[in-house]
Amino acid sequence: MSTSTNGHGVLSASRPTEVAKLDRVVIRFAGDSGDGMQLTGDRFTSEAAAFGNDLATLPNFPAEIRAPQGTIPGVSSFQVHFADYDILTPGDRPDVLVVMNPAALKANLRDVPAGGTIIVNTDEFSKRNLTKVGYATDPLEDESLSAFQVHRVAMSTLTQGALEGTGLGKKDAERCKNMFALGLLSWMYHRPTEGTEAFLREKFAKKPDIAEANILAFRAGWNYGETTESFVTTYEVAPAKLDKGTYRQITGNTALAYGIIAAGQRAGLPVLLGTYPITPASDILHELSKHKNFGVLTFQAEDEIAGIGAALGASYGGALGVTSTSGPGVALKSETIGLGVMLELPLVVIDVQRGGPSTGLPTKTEQADLLQAMFGRNSESPLPVIAPQSPGDCFAAAMEAVRIALTYRTPVIVLSDGANANGSEPWLIPDATQLPDLSVTFASQPNATDGSGEFWPYMRDPETLAREWAVPGTPGLEHRIGGLEKQDGKGNISYDPDNHDHMVRLRQAKVDGIDVPDLEIDDPSGEARVLALGWGSTFGPIGAAARRVRKLGMPIAQAHLRHLNPFPKNLGEVLARYDRVVVPEMNLGQLAWLLRAKYLKDVHSYTKVAGLPFKAEELQHVFTDIIEGALTR
C-alpha cells in the first residue's frame, strides 16, 4: 500500500478511514523507566508544537535511577494536552492511554475516564509480569476493562519483525518499540513525521544503524495504523490561533536558563552559575553550559555551599552571580544567602521546588519552600521572592529577578517547581531589542561625605536604598565588606546597638520599597464575590477551573501573585474587595498563613501535597462550593 507526504510532512493515508475533528486531546504514554516514554512524549509534543497546536505537558518519572523492571515504582509517564485553542494545563485525565506493560496499566488506569482509549503492548502481559504487580488474572482477558476502548497491539513483536535484516539483536530491536508507539499515535492524530525522522538521525548521528532502526520502527507503527482494521477512525486537532510571532516549545528550566542569559546580555555583565546538580534543577546547569559564547561560565562545585560561594564571589567581582538548586540545597545555602544580604550584593538563587522534607520526592512537584525562602535564615534577613506561573513565564521571571537583584543590590530567590521545570508549552520568542535595559553603573570615584577622599561602600541611592557596587581592584576604591555588621555609610565593622537597629530596619525598608506592579484581577463579569488567588505553577489549574465555573454561570475572580516579597501594594485592597478568598497551594497553606498574618483576612486555604499538580476538575468543585456558600450568606 503506497503512502505519500502532505504539506505538513504527514504520511498521507491511502486506506479510507473516518476522520473525527476534535478541539483538544490528552494523551499519556506510560511504561517502564527504560521504555523511553519521556523521549516518546517529547517527540509527540514537538510535532504538535510544529503543527501549531497550543499544548501543555506533564512528565512524571520515578526518582530511582533504575527501579526494578516491570514494577509500579518503576513506571514512567508523559502526558501531553494539545488543542486548537489556548489551554492552561496538561489535562486532568488522558483521553488516550498508551501502556507498555501491566505495571503502567495498573499505575494509570484510575485516571482514564469511562469510554477512554487504551492502547496496550500485549507482548508484556505475561503471567510473570502480571503477578509482579498483583494482577490475579489478565485484565485483557477478563471484563475489568469493559468500560474502555481497548486496542491490543503486539508492539514488541511487530517492532522486531520490522527490524529483521537490520543486523540488530533482539534486545536492541525491542528497545525501539517506543518509536513504534509514536508512529501509531502520529498516524492516529495526523501529526507531522519528518521532524521526528530528522531528530532521530541527528540524535544517533554517531550510530546510524540505531537511527535507521528507530526510523523503521516509527514507520512501522504508522503503517500498522494505516493497514490494521483495529483503528477505523483518525483524529484531527487544528492549529491554535495564537498571537503572531515565532514560537518554540520550551520547558521551565530552559526558559530560566534563557532568561539568565538574556539578562546578562541586557546588563552587559558576565554570568557565573555556581551550582551543584540536584533534581529537578540540574537542566539549568546543562543548558547554561552550552552558551559560553554569551559570556556564561558554569561551575559545577563539589557541593551546594561551594556553588553559592562561587556565585556570590562572582557578584563581589562585578559579575552576575547565579546559583540553582532545590529545597534541600536552599537549606545548605542559607548561610551564604544571609551573607549576601549583609554584603548587599546582587545574587539570583533559583529554587526548583520538589516534594520533601529531606530527600523526599526528588522527581515530584511541590510548593513547600515559600516560608523557607521568606524566613529560612538567621536573624532579620529580608530578601525579594518571586515565582513564575508557567514554563514559558520562567523566562520573564528570571529577567525580573535579575532586575531586582541589580537595581537593589540584594539576593533574590526565584521559586519555580517541578511542574514548571519539566513541563513545556509554546513560548513566543521575544524581540531581544525590546527586553528591558538592565545595565548597571559601577562606582568609579570616592564618595565620602567628610572630605577624606575615601570610598564608603554603604553610601546609598536615596530612592532604591541600594549601596554602591565597586569592582575590587579599582584604584582609590579600596573598601571592606564582610559578614559582620557594618556601620552605615562607611562600612566599618560596628557593634553599636543603635547602628545595628538602624541597619536591620534599613535592609528591611530596601526590600519593602522594591517597585513591583500592582496585582491584576481577572473578573470578566465584575460581579464576583469570590476570588481565587494563587502563586507559581497553580496558575494553570486555577485558571482552567475558573473557566469551567464561569461556563456554569457562576462568577469568580482570579488573581495570581508573581511577587511574594514584597507583595504588590494593592494586595490588601484586593483582598478586602471580596467576601471570600480561596488560596489553592501545593503545601499545607503557606501563602494563606502569610496573608492572614499580614492582612488579617480569613482566607480559605485549599491544599494538596501529593507530588502532583492540581486538577482543574477538583478546583472547580472547590470553587463552586465556596461560591454557593458565599451566595447563601
UniProtKB/TrEMBL annotation:
EC number annotated for this UniProt entry: 1.2.7.11, 1.2.7.3
Pyruvate flavodoxin/ferredoxin oxidoreductase pyrimidine binding domain residues: 272-488
CDD domains assigned: TPP_PYR_PFOR_IOR-alpha_like
Gene Ontology terms describing biological process: response to oxidative stress
Gene Ontology MF terms: 2-oxoglutarate synthase activity; magnesium ion binding
UniProt cross-references to InterPro entries, sorted A to Z: 2-oxoacid/accept_OxRdtase_asu, Pyruvate:ferred/Flavod_OxRd, Pyrv/ketoisovalerate_OxRed_cat, Pyrv_Fd/Flavodoxin_OxRdtase_N, Pyrv_flavodox_OxRed_cen, THDP-binding, Transketo_C/PFOR_II
Superkingdom as given in the UniProt entry: Bacteria
One Pfam family it belongs to: POR
PANTHER family per the UniProt record, alphabetical: 2-OXOGLUTARATE OXIDOREDUCTASE SUBUNIT KORA, PYRUVATE-FLAVODOXIN OXIDOREDUCTASE-RELATED
Keywords: Oxidoreductase
Domain Pyruvate/ketoisovalerate oxidoreductase catalytic: 34-221
NCBIfam families recorded: OAFO_sf (TIGR03710)
Name of this protein: 2-oxoglutarate ferredoxin oxidoreductase subunit alpha
